[in-house]
Amino acid sequence: MSTALALSEYESLAELRYQLRRFLHFSEQAARNKGLEPQQHQLMLALKGLPRGIPPAIGELADRLQIQHHSTVELVNRLASRGLVRRSRRASDRREVSLSLTSQGERLLGELSLHHKAELCIQGPALVTALERAMQRRKNSAGVRSTVPSEKLRRTGKHVKI
Q: What is the CATH number of the domain that holds 105?
């Protein structure tokens, strides 16, 4: 079984990367237009969008943003100094800090999120098409598909080889 990609697979991966960058560029510009750095907006969105039961802590946000703990602390410091994020000590353990958006932060994030949803209505179809094309399975020379999607794949992102 060949491990090399066909030219069409490189093209579909490149198109997916292009469509992702287009949306990310929009997002970065939208944040800057509101006076935020893109990572500040990302932190606010990650904070607001945390799944229920996940504590709003620096470590969790660092993981969700895929940045270092100290970088997350600096982002929180900047957002707190602008009155967009607040820190509070947890009642159960005073050593732990919990984060939340202020009403001003909620308002700003709400405006940005409405713009993002509208932009997804415009750019989304091309992004979805590029993603679907990049995920298409290739048949090998014997006409057998090289990977099989499964429910587990959709939930975990893991591939099942045959």
A: 1.10.10.10
